[in-house]
Amino acid sequence: MNEVTHEPEVISHHFSSGVYCKLVRIPNEYTVQSHKHKFDHMSMLISGNVVVETETTQQAYSADKGPVIIEIKAGISHAITSFDGDAMWACIHATDWTDESTIDEVLVVPPSPNMVKADFMVDVTPLVDEIYAQPELWDQFDFRTKSPSSPHHEGHDIILRYNSPDNYNENSPQDFAKEHESVWYPAVVKLPSFKYVFNQLLDNIPDCEIGGILITKVPAGKSIAMHSDAGHWHPEYYSTKILILLQSAPGQEFIYANGERYEGIAGEVFFFNNLPEHAVLNPTDTDRISLIVAAREKVKQ
Q1: pLDDT reported for residue 6
Q2: DSSP, res 108
Q3: Closest Cα partner for 245 from 214, 279, 204, 290?
């Protein structure tokens, strides 16, 4: 019996007279993370259905009536998501390079770091004081942390904005992250200094559509387990993630499975990618508290 895989599978590499073709099977509902190529190239959807998303467009393709040729321009970030079954996808490039172990280094723009520190800081002290004065705000809505199998189980949340709690169904909690319009939660009223912090942020970033917002705590000696948020509507639609450290200590780390590791101090702002596998480690005796904002930059008309 063949082993079932939920990761893209490179079926084969082909080289012929300055042309390279990579054949890939993309599992159902899997998103090949956004990436850029150094040169224009063609892709071919051989079978199945995909959505190709760039920074400004989103287009669905189907090979029901035969293979589909798609042109991908150089320097354009694009992601491919399969739906209604697995998809067979071929990338076709003009190149004389024939080493399959290093071909991506020749053709693909090196990825940007998954976390980038902003060139501004915000004053978080009033908000931290309000949080400490109201410990009852933690875990009023525990849909992220309640399950022992959740990577966030050792953490605690104050939800400020997300899908309406009225839409939560304990029998199908995964549906809570499906497409929705975010609403403000009651804790916003209890934390008036949040608006002060949030406005400082908005003054320093492009005009955005705002999705979910939460305050999360990783207690001393605890961690958020390695996980990926890919495959869910909310983290993929709101592709700009912003982390503001409210309280931290040396030795606390936000880490990625690829080896990237980041520390910070209270008031620092980070833009980060939560689709690759990542975790948060707190081996210190100080709670780590962060404000996380999910946003989507508005396309200029």
Answers
A1: 58
A2: B
A3: 290
